[in-house]
Each structure stands twice: as structure tokens, then as C-alpha cells.
Amino acid sequence: MKIRWLAVTLSLGMASLAFAQQSVSDQQMMKVRQAMGDEYAAAIAKKDAVAMADHYTVDVVTAQLCPEAPPVVGREAMIKQFEASLQAGLSNYSTKVKELRRLGDGTAWSTGVWEFTIPVSGYGAPGSTS
């Protein structure tokens, strides 16, 4: 089962104006953000939960859109969640950054598309023990 996500990701240290109006440095920041996504994809391909978690701060707090899923608080909890996802069969991850917007103080948001594969019997599926 292939799942396609439209994502909004907060990214530290990256920003830009609309793609058509980007300066050279903004385009470079877009490339850096894409490289971050590519590194994350490589970590998934290697089944390396720690390398996946390296893209988050020690005090990370994330929440999924699924109301049954509790928030993940802290890097160690994030690693455990990634390990469960990898064990459930997370693979074939790719991302394409579409746009970055400057927020100020070295922060920005970016939009893009994530694609990955996870078996129907995998993480969070009915009958799953994950």
C-alpha cells in the first residue's frame, strides 16, 4: 500500500520567498532542506531509527493526525516509534520539497510530498499489535 502525504514541516535554519522569486541563497536553502529529506530517506532504507531521530531535537514533541495515537514526547520516545514503524515494514520513503517560507529568527516552514510504503498488516492496521 503506497501512501502519499502532503506535508508541512517546520525546519530550523531554512527559509525562502516563493520559488519563482527565490534568490540564489534561498535556492541553496531549498537544496539543503531537500538534502535533509534525502538523509531521512537513507536512514529509513538502512532501517536506522537513531539516524531518523537525528532530524529532531532532544525535546521533540510530535502529534499525528490520527486521534488514537498519543503524542510522542522526547527523542527516546521518537526512536521507539521509529523502531516500531521500521519493524512494521516502513520502506520506499521519498520526499520532494515544494516550497519554503521564512518565519524569522532562523526558522521556516516547508511544504512537500512524502511517499512511503507500509504493509496493510503493519503499523496501526486493524488487528496489528503495534
Walk me through this protein's architecture.
The protein has 130 residues and is of the alpha+beta class. The protein has one domain (2-117): Nuclear Transport Factor 2, Chain: A. The protein has helices spanning 24-45, 49-53, 75-87; strands at residues 2-12, 61-62, 72-73, 91-104, 107-117. Strand 4 (91-104) and strand 5 form a beta hairpin. It is globular and about 45 Å long. The relative contact order is 0.25. Mean pLDDT is 77; it is low at 1-22 and 125-130.
SSE pattern? EHHEEHEE
**What strand order characterises the main sheet?**
1-5-4
Number of strands: 5
Structural class: alpha+beta
Number of domains: 1
Helix count equals 3
Characterize the overall form. Answer: globular
State the separation between the terminal residues, measured CA to CA: 17 Å
- Assigned CATH architecture: Roll
Q: CATH topology, what is it called?
A: Nuclear Transport Factor 2, Chain: A
* CATH level 1 class label: Alpha Beta
Helix content: 25-40%
The stretches of 5 or more residues where confidence is low (pLDDT under 50) are 1-22, 125-130
Fraction of residues in β-strands:
25-35%
The Rg value, from CA coordinates, equals: 16 Å
Chain-averaged pLDDT: 77
Largest sheet features? 3 strands, antiparallel
Oligomer: single chain
